[in-house]
Model the fold of this input.
Amino acid sequence: MNPTTDASTSLLTDMYEYTMLDAALQDGTADRRCVFEVYTRHLPDGRRYGVTAGAGRLMEAIGAFRPSEDDLRFLADRHIVSARTLRWLEGYRFSGSISGYREGEPFFPDSPVLQVEGTFAECTLLETLVLSVLNYDSAVASAASRMVSAAGGRPCMDMGARRTNEWAAVSAARSAVIGGFQGTSNLQAAKLYDLPAIGTAAHCFTLLHDSERDAFVSQIQAFGKGTTLLTDTYSVEEAVRTAVEVAGPDLGGVRLDSGDLASLAQQVRTQLDTLGATKATITVTNDLDEYAIAALSRAPVDSYGVGTQLVTGSGAPTCAMVYKLVEREGADGSMVPVAKRSAGKASVPGRKLAFRSYADGRATAEHVVAGGERALAGFHTPDGWRGLLVPYISEGQVNPEFVGHDALLRARDRRTQALAELPIAAMSLMKGEPVLPTLTQVIA
Amino acid sequence: MNPTTDASTSLLTDMYEYTMLDAALQDGTADRRCVFEVYTRHLPDGRRYGVTAGAGRLMEAIGAFRPSEDDLRFLADRHIVSARTLRWLEGYRFSGSISGYREGEPFFPDSPVLQVEGTFAECTLLETLVLSVLNYDSAVASAASRMVSAAGGRPCMDMGARRTNEWAAVSAARSAVIGGFQGTSNLQAAKLYDLPAIGTAAHCFTLLHDSERDAFVSQIQAFGKGTTLLTDTYSVEEAVRTAVEVAGPDLGGVRLDSGDLASLAQQVRTQLDTLGATKATITVTNDLDEYAIAALSRAPVDSYGVGTQLVTGSGAPTCAMVYKLVEREGADGSMVPVAKRSAGKASVPGRKLAFRSYADGRATAEHVVAGGERALAGFHTPDGWRGLLVPYISEGQVNPEFVGHDALLRARDRRTQALAELPIAAMSLMKGEPVLPTLTQVIA
Done:
């Protein structure tokens, strides 16, 4: 079962969303048409770009936003909303429209990664759910993307489940794939998102047996010589020798999970080759991040298993995305651009369009065009600009192009392609400014 | 619905747990009795102590670890385990014993926060689930505890749901309470764990209306004068004046979410008092962490709403806890202490006892006593030592003392009391060594 689709998601909110709904239903503003936008004011310290993720998963979670009887009873018992609002909630189903950046698309400060349009009532309820999904998933995809770049062509595998909340781990595996990872150790994610599942063995398996040799023999009997043996429980050198003795030269591979991985990998590679196991691969794990992966680029490593730093966003566990009302219907029925003016957190009023401009196949800038409905409708897209907003939900109908397994693979491709078109500095792990400037223009 | 109890948790694992089970069932070691222990090798950089959290929630998740038909079909279709193992899994139910630190109990490097005992087969399957829950929940509780200390007696409220995975947010709210928080904005957590739900209004509510005054009037009509109004959408000074005009001197409170909160709170307090709203409270929010809270200690603030830094562990989003086999049955039926010798990650063999020693009412050290079963059975607890391990599950039976709502409140009390007994440096936000040394002794 998938809690984001099979469970009601309607209480995955902050209380104020329900109380604002309640007040707005009473004062008559609940039906005002609104446009909310999701964006971040800045990338994490020194990051050059972010990678959008979560929207496909979010569409399923929005579909599951149907207050259950139990949810309604809770809202009533706690006196969070009035009886009138409870009746309104019984029929709740998001019937508005959502557009946004494709999953896998790079984003920058002020990129309108999601736009949610509908009545105030139906849109305000989604604030926290939208942000939870996009903030976490994009944080993981953004970190994953840097790791994959640092790994060159070598595969990166998600092994992070144990270092984050058990359900967060499931979405982390999905986001890792969007960021370019090849598989996950997490079975729930493998099942839910039809991802390759990977794994070797833990130290306990060796310790369980009376000898390391017994453990290796057992694993090979169960899974064949192509399996990957964990070789750092005791002496690595001895373990590698035993592994080849037991499996022969067709040994699939070994995993190293401790020590100075660069020198150890070199030593193990030489030993494997000397013993004839020239095709045995070396997988390394042990608190890897993008910097450690980069440092191993010249070591004879075949694949990276990444845990903690992947699922915690490698120092940036959230994207600081916000959900802001940018336009709403006025008393006369026309749409009015709005913005708060809070110190340091002012927003740009009006619905946005978003484009990326290119020159000679390289992206040159992120363009955010703001304005009233009429002004935007008349906006003529300049040559060489690519539109970044795609329709996820149109009047309540989910666009199947952007959900499900194939969409996930397309998202990974999207990241690969879009990244190749960014300025080359996007591949740098050095801290710096975003590789594209975000140019915001307001048109009348 | 609660995905940690109503959903099968049996695929919230890494694949290798199932493949190790499969190999062990084939080679005959699966039934060997084992003791696994959970501990961390170090606290996050400069932290003085950690706060245990998650075990109560974990017991429910372990109860839900019953592979569904759908889960079994997945394991079969992917050829992850053999037919024999599938049959074994059909009847899976953890029948071993688990003891560990109480929720709310401080922990230190090498503290055995959880011990899991049973056959290899039944224990190895739980590795990832155990670690996911304890690592994330304890990270949040540890951060929360520092914030609560920094806040003096002022209440701290969880408002972090939007900055972490949507289901992680639910457990974060629970962990925040263990760390001393008073309530949460997250409705799913409020419902599931019977916590006080709190909330004010968002900027969009003000922007939705034709004027700030309209928004305030609406909120007060819906929720009474005791409500808390958000006063930084436009001009704070004007908003506070409007708030008191609309609500009168009985205005419940205002929230400030931007700007220099210390000077702003002072200015708003003076204005409220001048306008006669002397009892109106001031809530501040805006990326608070323990340092920002400490810096506001002399500002006239009544409560803190904490988001990002709470749910991301304030720079330490995981506790780096590991799940290690420390003792297992040998071929002759006797228990054998075991340990890996991996570089930098060596473990201490043998099951542990854990105590805290005191002098004059203050804790002086964390004591970890390791040894074989017989040695530990004969260990005589020195005077002034307090045992830290309590029974969560005994031969498959969950101890009701440590699960559910009352246990959660006891956990919060436990943290308060235990913290008061730690050396005074525990309250310091300065980086330093753990306030208690962990003294490990191995007895024969």
About this structure: The longest strand of chain B covers residues 362-371. Residues 127-150 of chain B form the longest helix (24 residues). Chain B touches chain A through 115 residues (CB under 8 Å). The domain at 15-125+319-348+388-439 of chain B is CATH 3.20.140.10 (nicotinate phosphoribosyltransferase).
